[in-house]
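Translate structure to sequence.
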């Protein structure tokens, strides 16, 4: 269960709530564990709270820039005479070996090689098997699972490799690869293939069939809204030598609740209590059902279940009450949420950090920052130390109101209790500083972050670069962009960021700088597909650099990437205006060859490009007319007032 509150989320893991920031990746998998119930008055720990500090790349050393003095404690905004400050935030070259100090992965090269073969020959099985045989890759434990996971949603590719690998001498599938394959096939809703695979396991590797395998299948059935099929798995398990236990039942109940099947979950809960002798649901089972009611907004049923828990001798814990508080906060029923907190304290169940953080996030989400501060003070008085996520909710509320000084004051208060800003808090302040035009403050926070040993992630770089572009610090934006690429954070191109940066550079007549940025992307081995090439070529063309655009188009085709139809039409049209027949012929012939290789009709390709180009021009002109009409209407209304 995952609920977002003003830039953060609260999750249940093993019956325990976890808090993390919104930019962290939270797996929404509340797995069942019979011994995972939290106790009253539980203090925050790494077990029940997700760390909100994320590091996307490990880098030795910090960026070398001119010293910018100051810390988070300085709250006065500096006076800015010129936002550009040439040289102030320019990056120097880092020592060799610091850009990609990642641990060596023995599988990555083989995984990518196999993945490319699968994509190329997946529809021709004999050629696929021959290509895999001649690839030189040694099939070993761990590799097959990585390949299946690499195929992602294209489960058919993973299945072909799975079948081929099973035929290789000296290799047998292990429990993990079977589990991954069942998960992949279930995601594709190929449930017939899943049962066939389970039958194969029963005959050849019965020892690998475990309850966890069936839990994967149950979750896939539940996510596909096939409730009856999910429940039937319990009846099928004994045929494969597995008896369903409370763990499996808890996972089924949790899966049904997560996928909105709360009615079916409640019926299953009652049915299990009626027919299973000795079945005694524990706190985790109750909390899963309670969470299902709360997420569905059925608060009456949720409170009734809470009463039933007490009658059955299963006292609600902090997680139980926090589930109710979170749901009420999401509905802006803050008074009711406070009543639950008071009831919680009256029952002798002490609220923990997550409970208070949930309340603070609720008040801040609805703009009641003052009340959020009151809860924060109450929390500290009770002896609970807030974490970064607690402060992040308040900072996000200040960000919405453009209150930079208040953010800096709050961070200063954090430091007084020994809590330092994490990557997400720094991100919030940097984003707000640039929004208000305070470039110097944004740069100072970045430098402070790196001095404290926090490695910036992709979100930090994106916000920093967008902020610098917005303040027309283009050279500095390029420095940060190249630093991001050098750290390996541009594996999947950020198309919006790249487009904004390249267009801004070309608008400022910085053609050589823009070429340097593109060369950095290419030379650092980033994944550059047709969309990335199209952004670059179209940016050059739209700013009048037609010959440069054509040159990069030829370079793209040399790299084996065929231009989009409208790109081809646009370049040919531009070359006609320049009377440059030679380049036009060269591009046309290369496109014709690539079309023939891909069995595409060149005439149809050309016509589609011309049609798409006309439609885009028309849409652009229509947009200009609409904006002009809105401006005229705005002036007319202002005049009438």
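Result:
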């Amino acid at each position: 269960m995952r609920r977002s509150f003003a830039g953060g989320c609260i999750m249940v893991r093993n019956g325990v709530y976890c808090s993390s920031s919104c930019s962290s990746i939270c797996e929404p998998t509340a797995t069942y564990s019979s011994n995972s119930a939290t106790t009253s008055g539980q203090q925050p720990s790494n077990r029940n709270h997700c760390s909100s500090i994320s590091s996307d790349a490990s880098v030795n050393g910090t960026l070398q820039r001119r010293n910018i003095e100051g810390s988070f404690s300085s709250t006065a905004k500096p006076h800015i005479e010129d936002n550009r400050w040439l040289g102030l935030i320019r990056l120097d070259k880092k020592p060799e070996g610091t850009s990609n100090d990642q641990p060596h992965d023995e599988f990555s090269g083989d995984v990518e090689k196999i993945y490319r073969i699968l994509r190329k020959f997946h529809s021709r099985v004999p050629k696929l098997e021959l290509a895999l045989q001649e690839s030189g890759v040694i099939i070993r434990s761990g590799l097959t699972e990585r390949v299946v996971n690499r195929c992602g949603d294209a489960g058919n590719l993973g299945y072909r490799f799975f079948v081929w690998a099973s035929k290789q001498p000296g290799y047998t599938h292990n429990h993990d690869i079977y589990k991954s394959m069942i998960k992949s096939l279930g995601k594709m809703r190929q449930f017939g293939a899943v049962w066939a695979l389970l039958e194969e396991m029963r005959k050849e590797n019965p020892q690998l069939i475990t309850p966890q395998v069936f839990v994967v299948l149950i979750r896939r059935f539940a996510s596909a809204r096939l409730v009856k099929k999910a429940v039937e798995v319990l009846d099928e398990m004994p045929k494969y030598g597995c008896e369903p236990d409370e763990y499996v039942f808890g996972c089924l109940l949790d899966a049904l609740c997560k996928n909105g099947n709360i009615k079916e979950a409640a019926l299953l809960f009652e049915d299990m209590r009626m027919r299973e002798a000795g079945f005694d649901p524990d706190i985790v089972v109750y909390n899963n059902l309670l969470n299902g009611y709360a997420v569905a907004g059925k608060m009456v049923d949720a409170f009734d279940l809470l009463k039933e828990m007490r009658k059955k001798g299963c006292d609600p814990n902090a997680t139980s009450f926090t589930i109710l508080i979170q749901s009420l906060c999401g509905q802006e029923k803050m008074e009711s949420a406070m009543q639950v907190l008071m009831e919680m304290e009256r029952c002798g169940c002490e609220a923990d950090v997550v409970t208070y953080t949930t309340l603070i996030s609720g008040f801040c989400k609805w703009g009641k920052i003052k009340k959020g501060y009151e809860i924060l003070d109450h929390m500290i008085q009770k002896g609970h130390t807030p974490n970064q996520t607690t402060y992040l909710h308040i900072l996000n509320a200040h960000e919405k109101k453009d209150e930079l000084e208040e953010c800096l004051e709050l961070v200063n208060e954090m430091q007084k209790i020994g809590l330092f800003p994490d990557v997400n808090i720094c991100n919030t302040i940097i984003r707000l500083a640039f929004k208000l035009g305070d470039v110097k403050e944004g740069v100072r926070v970045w430098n402070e972050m790196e001095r404290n040993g926090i490695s910036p992630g992709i979100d930090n770089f994106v916000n920093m670069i967008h902020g610098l572009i917005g303040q027309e610090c283009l050279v500095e934006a390029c420095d940060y962009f190249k630093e991001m690429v050098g750290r390996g954070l541009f594996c999947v191109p950020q198309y919006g960021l790249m487009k904004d940066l390249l267009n801004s550079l070309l608008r400022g007549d910085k053609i050589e700088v823009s070429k340097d940025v593109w060369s950095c992307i290419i030379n650092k081995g980033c994944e550059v597909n047709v969309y990335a090439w199209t952004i670059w070529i179209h940016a050059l063309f739209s700013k009048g650099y037609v010959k440069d655009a054509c040159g990069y188009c030829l370079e793209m085709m040399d790299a084996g990437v065929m231009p989009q139809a409208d790109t081809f039409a646009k370049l040919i049209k531009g070359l006609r205006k320049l009377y440059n027949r030679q380049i036009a012929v060269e591009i046309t012939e290369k496109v014709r060859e690539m079309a023939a290789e891909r069995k595409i009709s060149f005439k149809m390709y050309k016509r589609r490009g011309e049609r798409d180009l006309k439609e885009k021009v028309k849409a652009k002109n229509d947009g200009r007319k609409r904006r002009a009409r809105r401006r005229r209407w705005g002036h007319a209304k202002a005049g009438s007032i």
